[in-house]
Structure formats: C-alpha cells, structure tokens
C-alpha cells in the first residue's frame, strides 16, 4: 500500500512539473508556406503597416533587437537590399522587439536605415511570427505567403537572401 501512495505522489509531482512546461511552451515559428500574419503597427514615420496593403509587393519582415550583435551586422545589408530593390517592389519592414523604445532609437541613430521600422515592445507581432532567434527574417511573396525563413544572420547569408529576393521579384 505504501508503494502505491509513493508512486501516486511521484506521478502527481511529475504532472505538476510537466504540464506547465507544455502550457508555457512558445508557439512554433512561422514556417514556409504559411500566410504572413498581420503587422498592424505604426512605423517611425507614423504610417500604419498593414500586410494587406503590401499585396503585390515582395516583403521582407525582419525581427531584430538593439542588444543583438548579428542584428547590427545585418542592418546595413538590409539597407542595401532596400536601396537596390525598392524600385522593383521590395518592401522591408524591420520589427524591433526591444521592450523600451529609446533602446531602439539609440540603435538606429548609430545604425541608420532607410526602410520601414516598427516598434513591437509588447511583442504583438513577434508572438504571431514566433521568430526562433534574433535576427529572424521572413521573405513573403506577392500573394502574402511566407516563402523563405532565415533564423540568425551571418555575412555569408546575404548572397542567398539576395537570390531569394530576386527570385520573388521575378515571379
């Protein structure tokens, strides 16, 4: 009888420890082939960024943070993509996930960009996309479908991203 009670206690303890892990687990990252979730935030110029308003364009949604070293390396690359491909229909939206907006603004003073940036301090957009790491980029085709996902950034990724942008712009 005592073994049964010990087993029951152990089972209850394991359930207590295991169930919260499943409940608190993050939603899996948005994958290729999924419809791109709405952004619905204002950019730094005060304009609302709506995915529905970007249909017919190739969109690169990039999640970044001021504390992220690879983000600092990626930003000039994204800015070059914007300068090179915006006239052909590429729209880049940088989604900053810093809790405090001043951190984002200080970063952008040191690393200015010409593309649209939104501040997602409450992670409303990040929760929809569930980026696996910083930075994470989602290349979205003209119909609003995620076609390529990049988790993290190394300088060697730039060439592949450029090929993917060119492919989507040609479709």
The gyration radius over C-alpha positions equals 20 Å
Uncertain spans: 10-27
Supply the number of structural domains: 1
Spatial order of strands in the largest sheet: 5-4-3-6-7
CATH architecture: 3-Layer(aba) Sandwich
Q: What fraction strand?
A: 15-25%
Mean pLDDT over all positions: 88
Query: What is the terminal-to-terminal distance?
Result: 71 Å
Shape: globular
What's the main sheet like?
Answer: 5 strands, mixed
Figure out the total of helices.
Answer: 5
Succession of helices and strands: HEEEHEHEHEEH
CATH topology: Glutaredoxin
Structural class: alpha/beta
The counted number of beta strands is: 7
CATH superfamily: Glutaredoxin
Q: Report the top-level CATH class.
A: Alpha Beta
Percent helix among the residues?
A: 40-55%
Describe it for me?
There is one protein chain. This protein has 171 residues and is of the alpha/beta class. The protein has a single domain (30-170), classed as Glutaredoxin (3-Layer(aba) Sandwich), CATH 3.40.30.10. Helix content is 41%, strand content 19%. The protein has 5 helices and 7 strands; from the N terminus they run H-E-E-E-H-E-H-E-H-E-E-H. A 5-stranded mixed beta sheet has the order 5-4-3-6-7, with helices on one face. Strand 3 (58-64), helix 2 (69-85) and strand 4 (90-96) form a beta-alpha-beta unit. The chain starts with a helix and ends with a helix. The relative contact order is 0.19. Mean pLDDT is 88; it is low at 10-27.
């Amino acid at each position: 009888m005592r073994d049964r009670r010990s087993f029951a206690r152990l089972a209850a303890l394991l359930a207590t420890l295991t169930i919260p892990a499943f409940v608190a687990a993050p939603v899996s990252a948005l994958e290729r082939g999924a419809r791109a979730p709405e952004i619905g935030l204002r950019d730094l110029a005060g304009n609302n960024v709506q995915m529905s308003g970007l249909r017919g364009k190739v969109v690169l949604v990039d999640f970044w943070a001021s504390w992220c070293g690879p983000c600092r390396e990626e930003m000039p690359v994204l800015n070059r993509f914007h300068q090179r491909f915006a006239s052909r229909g590429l729209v880049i939206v940088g989604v900053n996930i810093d809790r405090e907006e001043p951190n984002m603004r200080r970063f952008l003073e040191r690393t200015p960009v010409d593309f649209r940036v939104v501040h997602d301090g409450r992670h409303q957009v990040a929760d929809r996309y569930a980026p696996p790491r910083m930075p994470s980029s989602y290349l979205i085709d003209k119909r609003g479908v995620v076609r390529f996902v990049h988790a993290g950034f190394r300088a060697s990724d730039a060439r592949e991203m450029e090929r993917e942008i060119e492919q989507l712009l040609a479709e």
